[in-house]
Amino acid sequence: MATRILTLIAFLLALALTPLPAVAQEDFAAQINALGPGSFADRTKAMDVLVATGDERVPPVLQALSDGNLYIRESDGKVVIASKAAGGLQLTDPVDGADLGVLPSGELEKIKTNNGLRGKIRTAIGKLTLLSPDQPTRLSAAQSVLKNADPAMLELLDQAISAEADPGIKSTMQMARALIVLKTDAALEDKRAAVDLVVAQNNRAAQTVLRNTLDTAPDELKPTIAAGIDSIGRTLAVWDVGQNLLYGISLSSVLLLAAIGLAITFGVMGVINMAHGEMVMLGAYTTYVTQLVIQSVAPGLMEYSLAFAVPAAFLITALVGIGIERGIIRWLYGRPLETLLATWGLSLVLQQLVRTIFGPTNKLVQPPQWMSGTFELWNLSFTWNRLWIIVFAIAVFIALQIILNRTPLGLQMRAVTQNRRMASAMGIRTPFVDAMTFGLGSGIAGMAGVALSQIDNVSPNLGQGYIIDSFMVVVFGGVGNLWGTLIGAVSLGVANKFLEPYAGAVLAKIAILILIILFIQRRPRGLFALKGRAIES
Amino acid sequence: MTGLNRMMAGIGLGVAMTAGALAPLTAYAQDTIKVGVLHSLSGTMAISETTLKDTMLFLIDEQNKKGGVLGKQLEAVVVDPASDWPLFAEKARELIAVNGVAAVFGCWTSSSRKSVLPVFKELNSILFYPVQYEGEESEKNVIYTGAAPNQQAIPAVDYLMSEEGGSVKRWVLEATDYVYPRTTNKILEQYLKDKGVAPEDIKINYTPFGFADWQTEVAAIKEFGSAGKKTAVVSTINGDANVPFYKELGNQGISAEDIPVVAFSVGEEELAGMDTSALVGHLAAWNYFQSVENEANAEFIKNWHAYIGNDKRTTNDPMEAAYLGFQLWVQAVEKAGTTDTDAVLKAIVGLEVPNLTGGTAKVLPNHHLTKPVLIGEIQADGQFETVWQTEGDVPGDAWSDVLPEDKGIEADWTDPLTGCGRLNTATNTCEVAATAM
């Protein structure tokens, strides 16, 4: 990708700019070498000199500097472009593109950059790529021009706007143009037109542009600009409600995933399982191990590693769950306090076991490309990983409904929970069903772990953060009812996200807890209480 | 994962702890000096503190190879306070009273330090505390080898205000809700206001421990940063909450060139659990980075890798602080000729050892050290690249001069018996410090 862009840049420069008189080879080499020594300020100066030459060889050098691929050869102080190769770094001459062989990294010194310098490089490259045929390159060029609004860019910008076909990029360019016009001493009418254009955009970027120009604008325009900021602010306030709703749904999906396994073990079976969080944690570690295996066996499948991790996590945690049920919990049915203590102890043992095997530090789970980044829709923005987690949560919920309502195992589970002795009398092997039910609940917790590994730490403490929330959701929604768990998760998530901007995260959490306590006082069985004689007894 | 032995030892440790009685690891021997190691090996803080336990064992091992101290071998006594603050006090008492250790190296959180303080005072022993903290404390029995606020937070803010750092005008102080961020933010807010930052350009936000859903907060930072002035985030987010925070930052596309985040609690260890490619350019302020090029540091890293048997293990700032504390203690004991607490405390003030970044760590009368302050940018390989550092070493200030109530307050333990932890230089009286918990 990078090389493609670089080729494009080179091609474009050759095309778009009038060929400048070729700088003497030695001069250019000296200008490039000036990037090496000295402070960041010296480097900035050297960069300005290079950009001023307009030479087509400059953008690749700047890009390499920004990416940290520009080095000084210690033997003679020459600045070179390097890429990783066997036995050290493969060097390329930035002046004539010649291959300079491979050197061990000890004989090279990396040229340092900082945020300021990288910002300037982005601007410089942006200027040089505003007419690129490649759409993303043009968009980022337009954005960088908008960010620093250099009056010298006006002419080139006009040219780019008239050639632009993509409406999104065009509006960014027009905004940049308006901002530049407002900065220069253009005629009042031009400025008024520019303000109107920006106000008409009616989004957050436009508001930022207006705020930036408020101080320097001529007095006649100030009321218009202030009014524009206000009116955009009102529009954005409406969008904010939608944005909060999205955040709330996203939090709900996480809560639902974490709680739904518990809705089976606690809600359906009545086992207070304090080790539920550790099942989630085991699921996350399974993801980590799956990625390790895929990395070493078939690196090409890394993008799809989560597709392997989901069934693996389900199987492993389901087996662990069955083991726990057969080994510990089945001796404690009907003794909730002992179950609570035993599973609590078990959760500590599992945490320490994972800590001993994998070490106490966080593990890195690679996010796949398709789950990274943000997408924007109107004035809403949302990250891809959150969207996929929502989809995953819904899929898990539907699958669970099907298992419980449409399969023989589901039928037996419901029968055993409603009336164990009757079910037993009808020939259902209740111990087997108990083990399967607990395994199902644990397996679902494991799948939740795969999703959580994308947004949270993969550390032995992962589960602890979710256990309280999970119980809250299940109790609030109504024990023994999956729909209750869904509604409980959604209402808690959305309420939390609506409170957060006003009350702050700490107070929002406290407020939610108080609300739940009050609610449980009124309706001890939660939102959707099961009814029937078996429940009352 | 570095071998079966360590795993077996770990399992053994786990079993011993489950049984509830972790006996001192080594048997009683005649001619040894015992050193206590008080770091959590289980519970939430194990993620950070386990490494320091390993570091202490490594340092003691190295010292024993050189012939020990005062001609005697050192013997580490390791206990596990399990991230439980009251248990820290119990374990500290066990180390000093039952095992008779000469000094204790330990604690991470301020809560744990506050918990063991009364024990160290009562039994008159020495604690070497290796972590950057909020200041506002100076005790006879504690040597603070990590940074005070003026050795980390204030220089970091100065850097961001400078032209090189981006001339930041608007500040978000994003923090976890407990004592260290609260105190640090109090100092920073006052400092920023003194520098002429308008109150509406400062936004302080607290989140609970282990906070995982950062969507709203990161969106709020984005919005706060769109007001037209250069904005930066000063993060005192602690522990596990950092990973989801940085993941959200990366995903929402906040680049370091637009809104840099400078963190005081994120080091090489924390970055090891993250994909840092989206975080390049975000900053951290410490007194040490693994990437610092220096002979002493290269030697330290080489020996550490050899000891731990894994050349992927990172080093970090608290490890250097533990290293400095240990070297200072060894020197002080050699100088005093005894491990007696008061003699060692008298000997240690004014001692100097070279640090790992090319400077000198000197014990000041207020029991803090001189340290260089380094600002590093996160790189794609999970290391930091130093982009700025103070000229020379900064002396640690126990009582921040930024806070009006602490102006003119010093601490002086030159003589451990008559010293004072909160000396009002205006009235020349020793005040009783209000213990902020």
From TrEMBL, chain A:
Enumerate the Gene Ontology biological process terms. Answer: amino acid transport
Gene Ontology CC terms, in alphabetical order: plasma membrane
Main localization of the protein described in the UniProt heading: membrane
Q: Which CDD domains match?
A: TM_PBP1_LivH_like
Q: One MF term from GO for this chain?
A: transmembrane transporter activity
Spell out the Pfam families in the cross-references.
Answer: BPD_transp_2
Q: Which domain of life is it from?
A: Bacteria
- State where the protein is found: Cell membrane
Q: Return the similarity comment.
A: Belongs to the binding-protein-dependent transport system permease family. LivHM subfamily.
Protein name as annotated:
Urea ABC transporter permease subunit UrtB
Automatic annotation (TrEMBL), chain B:
State the organism named in the record.
Answer: Devosia insulae DS-56
Q: Where is the signal peptide?
A: 1-29
Q: Does the keyword Signal apply?
A: yes
One family name in Pfam for this protein: Peripla_BP_5
For this protein, the record's Gene3D superfamilies field holds: 3.40.50.2300
Please identify the protein, giving its name as recorded.
Urea ABC transporter substrate-binding protein
Q: Which keywords does UniProt give here? A: Signal
Taxonomic lineage from the root: Bacteria, Pseudomonadati, Pseudomonadota, Alphaproteobacteria, Hyphomicrobiales
Superkingdom of source: Bacteria
